[in-house]
Specification:
Elements (H helix, E strand, L loop, with lengths): L3 E5 L3 H13 L3 E5 L2 H10 L4 E5 L7 H10 L8 E5 L4 H10 L3 E4 L4 H15 L7 E4 L2 E4 L4 E4 L2 E3 L3 H12 L7 H9 L8 H14 L8 E4 L3 E4 L4
Parallel strand pairs: 1-2, 1-3, 3-4, 4-5
Antiparallel strand pairs: 6-7, 7-8, 8-9, 10-11
Helix pairs in contact: 2-3, 6-7, 6-8
């Protein structure tokens, strides 16, 4: 599952440079050119990390950061602020508003990529680690092997992708539509009921005898991976 990075930058040349290099690095990219558009896009599809310019039309980047941190559904998204402001007071203000990192223009793409990896590894390790663990469940994203309590579990390709997505966001509830988009892709037509079928298969596979049911069904909302089920 490729992490989604939201780029918020009004300089079209820099935006294109960022998008090109990060796509080459294996990330999915979404682009917004002003603060208002960024908030709309983020509310429609939650990214895994945001690269946010400070000086933006309509709504300044620092205000976008503040609003995202005030919302329950976006308060934990990693944010890297880009800015031409080099003063220490501006850097402190950006970090105090909720940014996870701060990069002063001009900067090297190599440094930005390193900072993205560092932030994801620190805040969202499930996006960068090859082996991810949650409770007594372990998933190896390279070999596609899954273990529960040390016992190997065999999953079909779709169930593996479903688990891989859920384990990146433990405790978060995803609607059927969100899971369809994340696991099957937005360009493929699949009925929402298909999600129920594959969640049922995944639940049956990972909930071996004597173990807690890790998949929580939230009526009229969706599903989550939650050990406190």
């Amino acid at each position: 599952m490729r992490p989604l990075i939201q780029i918020v930058e009004d300089d079209e040349a820099l935006e294109a440079l960022l998008a090109y290099n990060l796509e080459k690095e294996g990330y999915k990219i979404s682009v917004a050119n002003d603060g208002e558009e960024a908030l709309l896009q983020i509310s429609e599809k939650t990214p895994d990390l945001i690269i946010l310019d400070w000086m933006l039309p309509k709504i300044a980047g620092i205000e976008v950061c503040r609003r995202l941190r005030a919302r329950t559904e976006t308060k934990n998204i990693p944010i890297i602020i880009l800015t031409a402001r080099a003063d220490e007071t501006d850097k402190i203000r950006g970090l105090d508003t909720g940014a996870d990192d701060y990069l002063t223009k001009p900067f090297s793409i190599t440094e930005l990529k390193a900072r993205i990896r560092a932030v994801l590894r620190r805040i969202r390790p499930a996006l960068v680690d090859e082996i991810v663990k949650y409770h007594d469940l372990e998933i190896d994203r390279v070999t596609h092997r899954v273990k529960r309590g040390g016992a190997e579990i065999h999953l079909g390709p779709t169930e593996f992708r479903l688990l891989n997505h859920l384990i990146q966001h433990p405790g978060r509830v995803f609607s059927r539509e969100q899971l369809l988009d994340a696991v099957w892709g937005s360009d493929v037509y699949v009925e929402a009921r298909t999600v129920d079928v594959h969640v049922g298969r995944l639940r049956k596979a990972i909930n071996i005898p004597g173990c807690t049911d890790l998949i929580r069904t939230v009526r009229a909302s969706g599903y989550s991976l939650d050990a406190n089920n």
